[in-house]
Each structure stands twice: as structure tokens, then as C-alpha cells.
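Q: I have two molecules that I believe assemble together. Could you output C-alpha cells for the complex as a whole instead of separate predictions?
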Amino acid sequence: MSRREIGFTLNGRPVTVAVDPDQKLARLLRGLGCPGVRIGCDEGVCGACTVILDGRTVNSCHTYAFQAAGRTIETIEAIGTFDQPHPLQTALADEGAVQCGFCTPGLVLSAKALLDREPAPDDELLKRHLDGHLCRCTGYEKIWTAIRRVSAPEIPDHETRIPDGLSESPGTGR
Amino acid sequence: MARKFNVVNKSVRKIDALALALGKPLYVADKVPAGALHIKFLWSPHAHAVIESLDASAAEKMPGVHCILHHGNVPRVVHTTAGQGSPEPSPYDTFMFDRKVRHVGDRVAAVAAETIEQAEAALAAIRVEYEVLPAVLSMDDAMKEGAPVIHDEPEAHQPIPVPYEPKINKAAFVGMDVGKLEDGLAGADEVLDRSYFAHYAQHCPIEPHVAFAEVDAEGRIVIVTSTQVPFHVRRIVAQCLQIPVRRIRVIKPRIGGGFGVKQEVLVEDVVALMAQRTGRPCFLEYTREEEFVSARTRHPIRTRIRLGAKRDGSLTAMGMDCLSNTGAYGAHALTVVCNCGSKMLPLYRAPHVHFTGTAVYTNLPVGGAYRGYGATQSSFAVECAMDEMAERLDLDPLEFRRLNHIKSGETSPVFRALGEGKAGVEQAIGSCELERCITLGAKEIGWKKRGRWQDKTGRLRRGIGLACLMQGSSIPEVDMGAASIKMNEDGSFNLLMGATDLGTGSDTVLAQIAAEALGTDVEKILVYSSDTDLTPFDVGAYASSTTYLSGAAVEDCAQKVRKQILAVAGALLGRKPADLLAADGKVRAKDGSGEVTFGEVALHSLYAADQHQIGALSSHITHKSPPPFSAHFAEVEVDTETGAVRVVKYVAAVDCGTAINPKLAEGQTEGGVLNGISYALTEEYLFSAQGRMLNPSFTKYTIFGLRDKPELKTILVPSYEKTGPYGAKSVAEICINGPLPAIANAIHNAVGIRLREGPFTSEKVWRALREAAPAGASRR
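A: Yes, here they are, computed for all two components at once.
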């Protein structure tokens, strides 16, 4: 098998690039000027490398580069700027939900992909959607508060905590 | 104790939060120079072996390969990887590469090549023949007579004068006695003697270890690394490469989490030597599997607790004997086991106190610094034993603790007797709001409704447990932090410090302290931290020290600068500095007769008259290690048919003095708590009979995700620690210590079983339930 040229749309711009058959999308994107694609586990679990592929989130470390051919990819580089951050980015920063920040871009992309389709998801749907993102710093409390605030702005703070009884078994939610 | 602050004690936004949320190139891997070589390690497949021969000649000729390092071609310098002050209180028992390998995943060789694939191909071409030695795979085996000696190399030694006996696999030993334990136990109405085991775990920073090095135009080696200890990295790499410290610069960019595992010099020696040998930038990042197997872990520790108590609930004696598994190397072996005693024994008053700590070598993964640092392991033992003793005495476990815990103004002989690798420092407790932590936490969890396990029925049974905790704030008379501040033309300030923000938000917290002291806001403080060429020294981010220790250096420095500002403003306004006030970026005359902005002061000082740079440098050491205190409460639900334990609600009430940034302090608490719950319920290392970790991946070593999170409630209970900056104490480590004992105690309160070894998996709970109940009697 040999390198093959593929074309796709990256953050609104057409890209043509030669890829190896076993090359992973995460490393390709990092090489294409998207350092916000973080690689945390390289085994498709931690969610730090999340990108939006044709409107759905994927773990780009577990996606082959050639699978991007002819498709549209959004990375964190296309979401928000210092002057005009996405409301999710503002909320995460304001709530103290960004500690080391390594998982944050992936979380932003996952939440955005969901909210673009479903602006007011219920707790269960939102949780299911965010569960693929491991964070070792925050205990998720402030992440949840921040994202819940953006996705359901009318809900006051004290009702935005995860109600009890929602995880079926510990540590196996993914 | 309520004090009025302008910037401190406010939840200002973490200064780097938005840049991180925008995905900016802030981490090591984002800064790798073009054309960098990739480094991959060859790891030992054996737990204990001698390399009989290593032939890299074929691998060296492979395409893209630039350099291969192994024991035959690197300096043989005995050192420790523990990133501690000099001389390190950890044994010197490690070489960059050695002829002997001591655990599965120990270093054998490293390749630098143009691509990762080429490096990996070369690894496969290195021919190594091993003489496999019998392996030591448990603490008990390590201590048996005739056990294989793991460190038989003649160079192994302790750089400080403490017991070290590698010939019997003993990496560390420490002990102390106050009074006589036997007398205390003899005078007791009830005596408890129990052992508890806190298990292996990994820190799991989402960013694994990563570093690169390059040789600059003057031939100096510049290392950019994800570390908690940039200055210790510089010193230890210089030692390993046998070059002067001045030939090395270490830069720490943003870090993707550390939790202690990056208080270790694990990759920097190799990237530096590779860069020196090849003249090319060299880049290395651990895979997740390498992070589990070849980085560092929480030392597994078995703790025997002996308690004596009178019928009235007063403790007569506390004995603690800790046996720690340091794995193949002694990194932090002594100091972690010291901390088991020094952080938990002073929590309760007892006239007779006994402690021993022993660390043994095994051919298993290497222990290291992990948030909690021994106190996690010993709090499990102490806090479960306190519950077991309360039950014997028929006392409410909460009241039993109230009767005995240390209070403000009191001291403990343990403080002086036990430090980190040497005697400790006497101290009286200043601030202590543990009493209020207990009261507020108990109310929040609904302590009164907990009931007796004997009265609970049904398949799903709930229980409530508690744990009281203590940690420290810095290592007194040992650790030093320094900061410098200079003023800019627009009234902003550069704050330069060695303190190392590993994601905790310490850059923000320290900027708040500077802004408070200067009389300005956080936006005017430009923080640059952790660059050994440019910033003052700091020991780094460990021992719960940054806010308390480095924060005091920053406060002192800012006060010096403030005085200089007032002097210049005095000249401008024609007033004495004593008649002036600095606030909101301005200097005002107290009588309202005039004001100048900080910008005007700076311009005047730089261009107008008596020109000089307004600026200062301060360093700080601490003479105390004031403990933060915390009371934790867990409510659990146990499924008596499956053994599954679910944490329903978790409450952490914390006295960290003044929370410089309350939201960040809550974040530290919540992060520590969830890591602790995850550790208590699911995280564990599984080993093959040959000592190979069987589950080195996030799919098999599961850490809690968002759906696993119970309801978390953090209560910050303010106190004012007079020796800390604006009344602050530490908050980072203490809260990881609670879940293991609080959940164990809650499980007991739910179903009556005592689990003395983590994690509390369904299987373990189910077995314990079956053992406790006669067949057919489990459901009532």
C-alpha cells in the first residue's frame, strides 16, 4: 500500500494532502496547523483529540486519515477567538472548568456538535454526549455547570448539578 | 476572621483559561521544532534480568536512525529520578541505562530517528540477550531471607544519612516513638489492631510525559518539558550528563496535568543527551501504556494500626507501622512513608504514639510522588480504624473524632519527631476549623439519618461514612520559592517566578496575591513562570506548597515594589509615602488632595527624574507547615446481589485558610475527590505471574468519566492562617485522601462488612457479603 492523495474541507478551507494508509487523522491534523487536536491516549478513549467530522464528533486518534476524504472537518481552531469566544469557551473559562485544559478543546467540540443539533438537550442526553471525555483535574463538576448553563440558560445554577442515581455502574460509563 | 480583600478571595477567571479553551499551541508537543527527531524506548520484557549482550549495530544502520543509547555508551552516573531538593532524600539507585533491568518496562535502550516508525523499526532490530533472574513480586517476598537482591550494584547509596539496606531490599526505614505504645495500649479499655492496604494506582494525567531538547547557537541544551520541577530537572540532567548546570536551560510551558507523576525526571536526561549527540532537536512522548508501566505510581502501602481508647472515648495510644512497596527504584520511598505518619498521626491526640515506616524494593512498577503522598494511604488506615474503634466503644464515629482531634493552639510531638527524611519542625496549630467542617459536612450529608447497618433491609442498601483529614502546606525549613516583579510603562507588572503551574491555576492565584499587595487588578499582572534562565528559583509544584510558600514570596516582593511606587508617587505629589495609599492602579493622598496613576508613576521613574526600574526580588522559606483540614462524607448504595457500590453523594468540607480563588479551590477539591472515588472503586493494577501489568490502557484501567460522577458538594470553610499569604493554606492534595476511608466506612454502615483493601469492586464486595452472611440469609 502506498501514500494516496486525499482532499477534504478543514475549518472551511479545502485541503489536499498525501496520507499513508495507516496514518491517523489526529496526527495529520496536528501537522496541518491544528495543535488544538490533543493526543491523550492514542487509543480512542480519552476524547482529547475530538474533531467534528461531517457534523458528528469522532476521536481523531482512532480515525484513519483517509476516512476524511471528501468530507468536512471542524477542529477547535475554527471555534472562537480571543475577541469572540464561543459561549461554551466563555462559560468553561468563567466557571473554573479549565484546569490543565488538555481535555477542554475536545469537550467544547463535543458540546458544540450536540448543541448545534439539539440546543436544549436533557441531562441524560448531554451526559451521554460528554461522557467520552476524560478529565483528571476537575471532577467534572464545573465542566457540567458550565456546559449546562450554555445549553439551558434558564436553569439556575443550583439545579444544574448532576442528580444522583445516574451512573449505572462505576467506572464503566464509556 | 472576615477580612476585606480587593482581588484575593475572589473567583477571578484563570488567566490562561480562554487560551486553553481556544486550543492554542501551549503544550510541549505544540512547540516541537521542525525537523525534530523522534525518540522511542526499548523496554525490558522481564521483571528482573541482566543484559548479557546488546547488539545495536544492525539497528544503527537502518534508515532514518541517528542515535541509539544503551548502557554501553552513556555515562554511568548513579542518581535518583525523584525531583526533590538537593541532596535528595531518595536513594541513588538509578542509571540512565543499566546492564540490569529491574521491572517490566525498565529502560533497555532508546532510539532517535527521523520518524516514529523508523524509531520503532530500529527498536525491533536491537538484539538483546537476557539472563533472567528470579523476580521479587511482593513485599513479603522482598523481605524473605535469601530473597533476590534487586539493587546489588556497588554504587547504590543514600545521599543523606538515613538507614538504607539494599542488600536486604530495604529502600528506606524510619521510626519514632512518643511515650510507649505498649503502656498506652495496656491502659486502654479497648484495643484495636488492624491492617489496611492501599493499592497501586496511576496518576493518569491526560497529557503523558513529553519533552524535547535542542542545542542552541551557543551550544547550550534547551529542554522544554512537561514537568512540575524545572529547577530540579536542570540539576539532575546536569548530573546525569556530567555537565555544568549553566549548560542547560529548562522551560516549562503549560502542562496537561501532573498530580505528582511529573515531579520526576523520567525523560529529560534522554532527550538532552540525544540532542547533544545528534545536534538535532529530539522529541519524546510516552504512550498511554508507557505512562502506566514505565512512569510512576502510587506506592502501595500496608498499614498496621493499633489504637487504644478509654471507655469515655479518649485515645490512649496510636501505633502505625507502614510497609511500602517502592517497586524497582526508591524514588520518594523514604519521604512518602514518612508522610504516612507525619500527616495523619498528629490529627488525633494520644499520649503514646508509635510509628515505623519501611519501604522495600520489588520488581514491580516504581512508586513516586502522587497527590496525597502517603497521607492517602495512611488516612485509609487511620480513618477506618477510628470507625472500628468507635463501634467497639459504641460511640458515634463523628463524636469519637470530635473528642480526639487536634485543635487550634495545640501541638503534636509528631511534628517535631517526623519530617521528610529527617526530623520535623515543631509547630502549634494556628488556624483549624475542622470542628466546623465536621458540623457543616454532617448537616449537608444528613448524618443523623444514617442509622445502623443491622436495621437495613432490601437489595439496595444505603450507608453514610466519614473521614477526617489533615495535610501540610510546604516542607518547612526545606523548600524555597522566589519571585521577582518589575513595573512597566503602562502601570502593568511582569511577575516572574519559578513556581510551576501544572494546571492548578497557581499562576492565577499568585497573580491575585501580587495584585492585592500592589493595589491593582489581575489584568495588570503579566505572569511568566518556570524558566530556569529567566525566572527566580522555586523548588516546584509539590508538597502542597505553591500558594503558601511561593505565594508568600510573591506577596513580599509585591510589598517591596509597592513601597517603591509610593516613594515615586510621593515625589510627584509632594507628599510623604506614609500619607499615600495604593489602590485600583492609582496612588492617592489619604486626605484626598491628589492622585497619580501607576502608569504615571512608571513613566516618571523610567524617563523623568531619578530614573530607575521599579522592581524587586524576594525569596521565602517557611517555618511551619500549617495543615489544611477537611471532613469528608460519602453516601453510598450497595447492591447486595451484585456487590456494586455506587456513591450517591459526596461532601467535602475544607478548611484551606483563605481561599485565594474560591472557584479554583473548589476545583482542586472536586478534582481530588473524584480521583479518590475512582481510586476507591475501580482503579487497580493487575499483574501477570511474571510481574507484567495486564491492563495498561484506559480501556482496562478505567478512570471515572462524567457519568460516573456522583453529586459532589464542596464546602469551603474559611479560616485565617496568620503565617500564610492573606491567610491562605494549601488545598491541592488533602481531598484525594478522603474517598477511600469515607467510602469504606459508608459501605460498612450500609451492609456491615469491613473492607480493608481497595479497590471496592463489585467482586470484592460481593465476596465479603457472602462471607459475612450464612447462605440464604443475605436477603432480609
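A: One point stands out. Confidence is low (pLDDT under 50) at residues 157-174 of chain A.
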